[in-house]
Design goal:
alpha/beta; Ribosomal Protein L4, Chain: A
Length: about 240
C-alpha cells in the first residue's frame, strides 16, 4: 500500500486542552503530556478493564426452577393410548412450554468476579481519560462551584458547554452543591474525581470536570494516600525548618 498507516502504539503529541468558562467560551489552555496517561491508547487494556468491571457488577443470583418447583398439576394431560396423539406426561415436563428446567440453576451464589492488577487498573483509568482527550470529549471548566443547589443553573452550564449526549460530571469532594444540582438530570451522572475509572469514562460520551480537579487527577494529589504523603512531607519540612 502506498499510503502510510499510523501505528496504533505510536506516542501521541502533547494535547492542548481548552479551559472553558460556564458559557462555553475558551479562557485558557492546559497542556497535557500523553506520556502521563499511557502514551498511546491501549484498546486491549481498556476492553479488559471494561468487561471485568461490568462483570463484577453482576449479582450472580439468577435462579431457574426444576419440574418439581414449577406450579401446576402432576396429572398426565391425557390417557396414554387411544387419542391418536403422541404420548405425553404432565404439563411441568421440561420438554413443554412453561415447564421446568432439566438442569436448573440452584446455586446459592454464582461468582463472576475477576480482577486486574493494581498497575493495570490504574493505567486503564488514566488511559481512558487519554482516549476521551483524543476524541475531544473532555469539557474542562474553569470553575464549577455553586453557592446553592439549583438544577436550572446546572442545565444552563451543560447547555453552554454543548453537552447533547450522556455526560459524566466529575466533582471534588467539597463541591456538594454542584452534585445536588446535577443528580436529577437525565443522562447525567456524577462521580468524585478520585473515583474516576475506565468503565464510567467509556460509558459516557462527555466528561465534564473543573481545572483543579483535572490537575489533581493528573498529578495524583486527589487520591487519599498521595494527599497523606504530601502532607507528611510538608510537615517534615516544617520540622526541619
Amino acid at each position: 500500500m502506498s499510503e502510510a498507516i499510523e501505528h496504533p502504539e505510536q506516542p501521541l503529541a502533547p494535547i492542548d486542552l481548552p479551559i472553558l468558562d460556564r458559557a462555553g467560551k475558551q479562557v485558557d489552555t492546559l497542556k497535557i503530556d500523553p506520556a502521563d496517561l499511557g502514551g498511546h491508547i491501549r484498546f486491549a487494556l481498556l476492553k479488559q478493564a471494561y468487561v471485568i468491571t461490568h462483570g463484577n457488577q453482576r449479582q450472580g443470583s439468577a435462579r431457574t426452577k426444576t419440574r418439581g418447583q414449577v406450579q401446576g398439576s402432576t396429572r398426565k394431560l391425557y390417557r396414554q393410548k387411544g387419542t391418536g396423539n403422541a404420548r405425553v406426561g404432565p404439563a411441568r415436563s421440561p420438554i413443554r412450554k412453561g415447564g421446568g428446567h432439566a438442569f436448573a440453576k440452584t446455586r446459592t451464589r454464582e461468582a463472576f468476579r475477576s480482577s486486574l492488577t493494581k498497575r493495570m487498573r490504574r493505567l486503564a483509568n488514566r488511559n481512558a481519560l487519554l482516549a476521551k482527550l483524543v476524541d475531544g470529549e473532555v469539557k474542562c471548566v474553569n470553575d464549577l462551584s455553586m453557592d446553592t443547589p439549583r438544577t436550572k443553573d446546572m442545565v444552563a452550564i451543560l447547555a453552554g458547554l454543548g453537552i447533547d449526549r450522556t455526560c459524566l460530571l466529575a466533582l471534588e469532594t467539597e463541591n456538594r452543591m454542584a452534585a445536588l444540582s446535577a443528580r436529577n438530570l437525565p443522562n447525567v451522572d456524577t462521580t468524585r474525581v478520585d473515583q474516576l475509572n475506565a468503565f464510567e469514562l467509556l460509558n459516557h460520551r462527555y466528561l465534564v470536570i473543573n481545572r483543579a480537579g483535572l490537575e489533581s487527577f493528573l498529578d495524583g494529589s486527589c487520591f487519599p494516600k498521595a494527599a497523606e504523603a504530601s502532607d507528611a512531607e510538608s510537615g517534615a519540612e516544617k520540622e526541619v525548618a
